Amino acid sequence: MRQAGRYMSEYRSLRERYSLLELCRTPDLATEVTLQPVRKIEVDAAILFSDLLLPLAPMGIAFDFIRGEGPAIEHPLRTEADLDRTRKFEPREELGYVLQAITQIKGALGDLVPLIGFAGAPFTLASYAIEGGHSNNFAHTKSLMYGSPAAWHRFCDLIAEIIGDYLVAQVEAGVDCVQVFDSWVGALNAADYREFILPHTKKIFDRVAPLGVPTIHFGVGTGSILGELREAGGDVIGADWRTPLDEAWARIGPDRGIQGNLDPTLLLGPVERMFTATDDILARAAGRPGHIFNLGHGILPSTPLEHVQELAHYVHQTTIA
Q1: Tens digits of residue pLDDT in 235-262
Q2: Could you give the percent of the chain with pLDDT greater than 90?
Q3: Rounded CA separation 21/291 (Å)
Q4: Catalytic status, residue 85
Q5: Looking at the domain assignment, is residue 29 inside a domain?
Q6: What is the domain count for the chain?
Q7: Is 6 known to be catalytic?
Protein backbone atom coordinates (compact mmCIF):
# COMPACT_ATOMS: atom_id res chain seq x y z
CA MET A 1 0.00 0.00 0.00
CA ARG A 2 1.48 3.30 -1.13
CA GLN A 3 4.90 1.72 -1.55
CA ALA A 4 6.71 4.90 -2.53
CA GLY A 5 6.53 8.01 -0.40
CA ARG A 6 7.83 10.22 2.33
CA TYR A 7 9.22 7.39 4.46
CA MET A 8 11.95 6.87 1.80
CA SER A 9 14.93 9.22 1.67
CA GLU A 10 15.22 8.75 -2.11
CA TYR A 11 11.66 9.96 -2.55
CA ARG A 12 12.14 12.93 -0.22
CA SER A 13 15.20 13.93 -2.22
CA LEU A 14 13.13 14.07 -5.41
CA ARG A 15 10.33 15.98 -3.67
CA GLU A 16 12.80 18.71 -2.73
CA ARG A 17 13.21 19.35 -6.48
CA TYR A 18 9.81 18.49 -7.92
CA SER A 19 6.18 18.92 -6.95
CA LEU A 20 3.98 15.85 -6.52
CA LEU A 21 2.18 16.64 -9.77
CA GLU A 22 5.51 16.98 -11.59
CA LEU A 23 6.49 13.51 -10.35
CA CYS A 24 3.17 12.08 -11.52
CA ARG A 25 3.16 13.82 -14.89
CA THR A 26 6.78 13.13 -15.87
CA PRO A 27 7.18 9.49 -16.98
CA ASP A 28 10.90 9.30 -16.17
CA LEU A 29 10.26 10.53 -12.63
CA ALA A 30 7.19 8.34 -12.11
CA THR A 31 9.26 5.37 -13.27
CA GLU A 32 12.05 6.15 -10.84
CA VAL A 33 9.70 6.58 -7.88
CA THR A 34 7.85 3.34 -8.73
CA LEU A 35 11.14 1.44 -8.74
CA GLN A 36 12.53 2.91 -5.50
CA PRO A 37 10.72 0.56 -3.09
CA VAL A 38 11.22 -2.44 -5.38
CA ARG A 39 14.97 -1.96 -4.99
CA LYS A 40 14.79 -1.68 -1.20
CA ILE A 41 11.92 -3.93 -0.05
CA GLU A 42 11.02 -7.57 -0.73
CA VAL A 43 7.70 -6.70 -2.35
CA ASP A 44 5.92 -9.22 -4.55
CA ALA A 45 4.63 -6.57 -6.95
CA ALA A 46 5.39 -2.99 -7.92
CA ILE A 47 2.67 -0.34 -7.58
CA LEU A 48 2.48 2.34 -10.23
CA PHE A 49 3.43 5.73 -8.80
CA SER A 50 0.58 8.07 -9.66
CA ASP A 51 -2.30 9.78 -7.91
CA LEU A 52 -5.97 8.89 -7.97
CA LEU A 53 -6.99 12.55 -8.47
CA LEU A 54 -5.28 12.91 -11.86
CA PRO A 55 -8.51 12.32 -13.85
CA LEU A 56 -10.20 15.30 -12.14
CA ALA A 57 -8.25 18.00 -14.00
CA PRO A 58 -9.30 16.93 -17.53
CA MET A 59 -12.87 16.64 -16.21
CA GLY A 60 -12.68 20.38 -15.55
CA ILE A 61 -11.95 20.11 -11.83
CA ALA A 62 -8.68 21.94 -11.20
CA PHE A 63 -6.63 20.95 -8.13
CA ASP A 64 -3.18 21.10 -6.62
CA PHE A 65 -1.34 19.62 -3.66
CA ILE A 66 -0.66 21.91 -0.72
CA ARG A 67 2.50 20.87 1.10
CA GLY A 68 1.64 19.45 4.49
CA GLU A 69 -2.10 19.59 3.83
CA GLY A 70 -2.81 17.32 0.87
CA PRO A 71 -4.97 17.88 -2.22
CA ALA A 72 -6.99 21.07 -2.62
CA ILE A 73 -9.71 21.54 -5.25
CA GLU A 74 -9.63 25.03 -6.77
CA HIS A 75 -13.42 25.35 -7.06
CA PRO A 76 -15.27 22.62 -5.13
CA LEU A 77 -18.47 21.35 -6.75
CA ARG A 78 -21.31 22.40 -4.49
CA THR A 79 -24.40 22.54 -6.72
CA GLU A 80 -26.23 20.39 -9.23
CA ALA A 81 -25.07 22.78 -11.95
CA ASP A 82 -21.46 22.31 -10.83
CA LEU A 83 -21.77 18.55 -11.23
CA ASP A 84 -23.32 18.87 -14.67
CA ARG A 85 -20.52 21.13 -15.93
CA THR A 86 -17.93 18.36 -15.66
CA ARG A 87 -16.93 16.69 -18.90
CA LYS A 88 -15.85 13.37 -20.33
CA PHE A 89 -12.36 12.96 -21.82
CA GLU A 90 -10.22 10.31 -23.50
CA PRO A 91 -7.71 8.97 -20.92
CA ARG A 92 -5.30 7.81 -23.62
CA GLU A 93 -4.88 11.44 -24.64
CA GLU A 94 -5.24 13.46 -21.43
CA LEU A 95 -3.46 10.92 -19.18
CA GLY A 96 -1.03 9.61 -21.77
CA TYR A 97 1.92 10.41 -19.50
CA VAL A 98 0.69 7.74 -17.06
CA LEU A 99 0.51 5.17 -19.84
CA GLN A 100 4.00 6.11 -21.01
CA ALA A 101 5.27 5.65 -17.45
CA ILE A 102 3.68 2.17 -17.34
CA THR A 103 5.50 1.18 -20.54
CA GLN A 104 8.80 2.42 -19.13
CA ILE A 105 8.27 0.75 -15.75
CA LYS A 106 7.43 -2.60 -17.34
CA GLY A 107 10.58 -2.37 -19.42
CA ALA A 108 12.66 -1.65 -16.32
CA LEU A 109 11.04 -4.39 -14.22
CA GLY A 110 11.37 -7.13 -16.81
CA ASP A 111 10.28 -10.38 -15.15
CA LEU A 112 11.27 -9.27 -11.64
CA VAL A 113 7.76 -8.56 -10.29
CA PRO A 114 4.36 -7.72 -11.80
CA LEU A 115 3.04 -4.15 -11.92
CA ILE A 116 -0.21 -3.05 -10.28
CA GLY A 117 -2.09 -0.13 -11.82
CA PHE A 118 -4.88 1.75 -10.08
CA ALA A 119 -7.54 4.42 -10.19
CA GLY A 120 -9.98 6.10 -7.81
CA ALA A 121 -13.55 4.89 -7.36
CA PRO A 122 -16.67 7.06 -7.76
CA PHE A 123 -17.37 7.95 -4.13
CA THR A 124 -13.79 8.88 -3.29
CA LEU A 125 -13.27 10.97 -6.44
CA ALA A 126 -16.67 12.63 -6.04
CA SER A 127 -16.07 13.43 -2.38
CA TYR A 128 -12.70 15.07 -3.10
CA ALA A 129 -14.27 17.15 -5.87
CA ILE A 130 -17.22 18.21 -3.72
CA GLU A 131 -15.54 18.67 -0.34
CA GLY A 132 -12.53 20.43 -1.83
CA GLY A 133 -10.12 18.10 -0.07
CA HIS A 134 -10.19 15.62 2.77
CA SER A 135 -13.24 15.61 5.03
CA ASN A 136 -14.18 14.12 8.39
CA ASN A 137 -17.95 14.03 7.84
CA PHE A 138 -18.49 14.40 4.06
CA ALA A 139 -21.33 16.82 4.75
CA HIS A 140 -21.18 18.59 1.38
CA THR A 141 -20.94 15.28 -0.47
CA LYS A 142 -23.86 13.66 1.30
CA SER A 143 -25.94 16.84 1.02
CA LEU A 144 -25.60 16.76 -2.77
CA MET A 145 -26.04 12.99 -2.87
CA TYR A 146 -29.29 13.08 -0.88
CA GLY A 147 -30.58 16.40 -2.24
CA SER A 148 -29.82 15.99 -5.94
CA PRO A 149 -29.78 12.24 -6.57
CA ALA A 150 -30.28 12.49 -10.35
CA ALA A 151 -27.32 14.85 -10.75
CA TRP A 152 -25.28 12.68 -8.37
CA HIS A 153 -25.91 9.58 -10.46
CA ARG A 154 -25.04 11.40 -13.68
CA PHE A 155 -21.78 12.58 -12.12
CA CYS A 156 -20.84 9.15 -10.74
CA ASP A 157 -21.77 7.49 -14.03
CA LEU A 158 -19.40 9.90 -15.80
CA ILE A 159 -16.64 9.07 -13.32
CA ALA A 160 -17.25 5.34 -13.78
CA GLU A 161 -17.09 5.63 -17.56
CA ILE A 162 -13.84 7.58 -17.43
CA ILE A 163 -12.20 5.32 -14.82
CA GLY A 164 -13.26 2.18 -16.67
CA ASP A 165 -11.63 3.47 -19.86
CA TYR A 166 -8.57 4.62 -17.89
CA LEU A 167 -8.02 1.19 -16.34
CA VAL A 168 -8.47 -0.52 -19.69
CA ALA A 169 -5.81 1.82 -21.10
CA GLN A 170 -3.49 0.93 -18.20
CA VAL A 171 -3.91 -2.77 -18.95
CA GLU A 172 -3.24 -2.14 -22.63
CA ALA A 173 -0.08 -0.27 -21.61
CA GLY A 174 1.14 -3.28 -19.64
CA VAL A 175 -0.06 -3.42 -16.01
CA ASP A 176 -0.65 -6.95 -14.74
CA CYS A 177 -3.37 -6.14 -12.22
CA VAL A 178 -5.57 -3.16 -11.40
CA GLN A 179 -6.78 -1.83 -8.08
CA VAL A 180 -9.81 0.41 -7.58
CA PHE A 181 -9.38 2.71 -4.58
CA ASP A 182 -12.49 3.80 -2.71
CA SER A 183 -10.57 5.10 0.27
CA TRP A 184 -13.43 7.05 1.85
CA VAL A 185 -16.45 4.90 1.04
CA GLY A 186 -16.53 3.64 4.62
CA ALA A 187 -18.42 6.87 5.37
CA LEU A 188 -21.52 5.23 3.83
CA ASN A 189 -23.86 2.65 5.33
CA ALA A 190 -24.92 -0.40 3.35
CA ALA A 191 -28.22 1.06 2.14
CA ASP A 192 -26.62 4.27 0.86
CA TYR A 193 -23.79 2.33 -0.76
CA ARG A 194 -26.29 0.18 -2.64
CA GLU A 195 -28.35 3.14 -3.79
CA PHE A 196 -25.71 5.70 -4.62
CA ILE A 197 -22.44 3.87 -5.38
CA LEU A 198 -22.70 0.16 -6.10
CA PRO A 199 -24.00 0.40 -9.70
CA HIS A 200 -21.28 2.88 -10.65
CA THR A 201 -18.39 0.93 -9.13
CA LYS A 202 -19.77 -2.25 -10.68
CA LYS A 203 -19.69 -0.52 -14.06
CA ILE A 204 -15.93 -0.05 -13.67
CA PHE A 205 -15.27 -3.69 -12.81
CA ASP A 206 -17.58 -4.88 -15.58
CA ARG A 207 -15.61 -2.74 -18.04
CA VAL A 208 -12.29 -4.31 -17.00
CA ALA A 209 -13.52 -7.92 -16.62
CA PRO A 210 -13.22 -8.97 -20.29
CA LEU A 211 -9.48 -8.20 -20.19
CA GLY A 212 -8.86 -11.09 -17.81
CA VAL A 213 -6.49 -9.29 -15.43
CA PRO A 214 -6.86 -9.68 -11.64
CA THR A 215 -8.78 -6.86 -9.92
CA ILE A 216 -8.57 -5.54 -6.37
CA HIS A 217 -11.28 -3.46 -4.67
CA PHE A 218 -9.99 -1.41 -1.74
CA GLY A 219 -11.67 0.72 0.90
CA VAL A 220 -11.09 1.92 4.46
CA GLY A 221 -13.57 1.54 7.31
CA THR A 222 -15.66 -0.82 5.19
CA GLY A 223 -16.21 -3.63 7.70
CA SER A 224 -19.98 -3.17 7.59
CA ILE A 225 -20.19 -3.10 3.78
CA LEU A 226 -17.71 -5.79 2.74
CA GLY A 227 -20.52 -7.82 1.21
CA GLU A 228 -21.59 -4.83 -0.85
CA LEU A 229 -18.01 -4.22 -2.02
CA ARG A 230 -17.83 -7.83 -3.12
CA GLU A 231 -21.08 -7.40 -5.06
CA ALA A 232 -19.72 -4.29 -6.79
CA GLY A 233 -16.73 -6.26 -8.04
CA GLY A 234 -13.15 -7.32 -7.54
CA ASP A 235 -11.35 -10.66 -7.45
CA VAL A 236 -9.75 -9.47 -4.22
CA ILE A 237 -11.46 -7.28 -1.60
CA GLY A 238 -9.41 -5.12 0.75
CA ALA A 239 -9.99 -5.27 4.50
CA ASP A 240 -8.51 -2.75 6.91
CA TRP A 241 -7.27 -3.50 10.44
CA ARG A 242 -10.59 -2.83 12.20
CA THR A 243 -12.04 -6.23 11.32
CA PRO A 244 -10.13 -9.47 12.05
CA LEU A 245 -9.07 -11.06 8.78
CA ASP A 246 -11.02 -14.31 9.18
CA GLU A 247 -14.22 -12.40 10.05
CA ALA A 248 -13.72 -10.08 7.07
CA TRP A 249 -13.14 -13.03 4.76
CA ALA A 250 -16.34 -14.70 5.98
CA ARG A 251 -18.29 -11.54 5.08
CA ILE A 252 -16.62 -11.32 1.68
CA GLY A 253 -17.08 -14.99 0.83
CA PRO A 254 -14.68 -17.89 0.23
CA ASP A 255 -14.66 -17.47 -3.56
CA ARG A 256 -12.88 -14.10 -3.40
CA GLY A 257 -9.39 -13.22 -2.31
CA ILE A 258 -8.67 -10.80 0.51
CA GLN A 259 -6.05 -8.08 0.90
CA GLY A 260 -4.97 -6.93 4.34
CA ASN A 261 -4.94 -6.18 7.06
CA LEU A 262 -2.13 -4.92 9.30
CA ASP A 263 -2.61 -1.55 11.05
CA PRO A 264 -0.02 0.82 9.49
CA THR A 265 0.75 2.34 12.90
CA LEU A 266 2.19 -0.98 14.05
CA LEU A 267 5.19 -0.23 11.84
CA LEU A 268 5.94 2.75 14.08
CA GLY A 269 6.38 0.64 17.23
CA PRO A 270 8.64 -2.23 18.33
CA VAL A 271 9.18 -4.81 15.60
CA GLU A 272 8.31 -7.61 18.02
CA ARG A 273 4.79 -6.25 18.39
CA MET A 274 4.55 -5.80 14.62
CA PHE A 275 5.57 -9.44 14.16
CA THR A 276 3.04 -10.63 16.76
CA ALA A 277 0.23 -8.83 14.93
CA THR A 278 1.52 -10.26 11.64
CA ASP A 279 1.44 -13.78 13.10
CA ASP A 280 -2.19 -13.24 14.12
CA ILE A 281 -3.18 -12.20 10.61
CA LEU A 282 -1.36 -15.13 9.03
CA ALA A 283 -2.94 -17.52 11.52
CA ARG A 284 -6.40 -16.21 10.64
CA ALA A 285 -5.61 -16.63 6.93
CA ALA A 286 -4.67 -20.23 7.82
CA GLY A 287 -2.74 -20.79 4.63
CA ARG A 288 -5.83 -20.45 2.44
CA PRO A 289 -5.05 -19.37 -1.13
CA GLY A 290 -6.11 -15.86 -2.03
CA HIS A 291 -4.64 -13.83 0.84
CA ILE A 292 -2.46 -10.86 -0.12
CA PHE A 293 -0.65 -9.79 3.04
CA ASN A 294 -0.71 -6.03 3.13
CA LEU A 295 -1.32 -3.02 5.31
CA GLY A 296 -4.88 -1.91 5.95
CA HIS A 297 -3.99 1.51 4.50
CA GLY A 298 -0.90 3.38 3.27
CA ILE A 299 2.51 3.49 4.93
CA LEU A 300 2.74 6.51 7.21
CA PRO A 301 5.44 9.11 6.40
CA SER A 302 7.21 8.65 9.76
CA THR A 303 7.60 4.88 9.30
CA PRO A 304 11.23 3.68 9.52
CA LEU A 305 12.23 2.07 6.24
CA GLU A 306 13.94 -0.69 8.23
CA HIS A 307 10.58 -1.73 9.72
CA VAL A 308 9.03 -2.03 6.25
CA GLN A 309 11.98 -4.12 5.10
CA GLU A 310 11.82 -6.35 8.18
CA LEU A 311 8.08 -6.83 7.82
CA ALA A 312 8.29 -7.94 4.17
CA HIS A 313 11.18 -10.29 4.98
CA TYR A 314 9.34 -11.71 8.00
CA VAL A 315 6.16 -12.45 6.01
CA HIS A 316 8.14 -14.23 3.30
CA GLN A 317 10.19 -16.17 5.83
CA THR A 318 7.12 -17.19 7.84
CA THR A 319 4.88 -18.17 4.94
CA ILE A 320 7.60 -20.11 3.13
CA ALA A 321 8.49 -21.92 6.35
Answers
A1: 999 999 999 999 999 999 999 999 989 9
A2: 95
A3: 33
A4: no
A5: yes
A6: 1
A7: yes
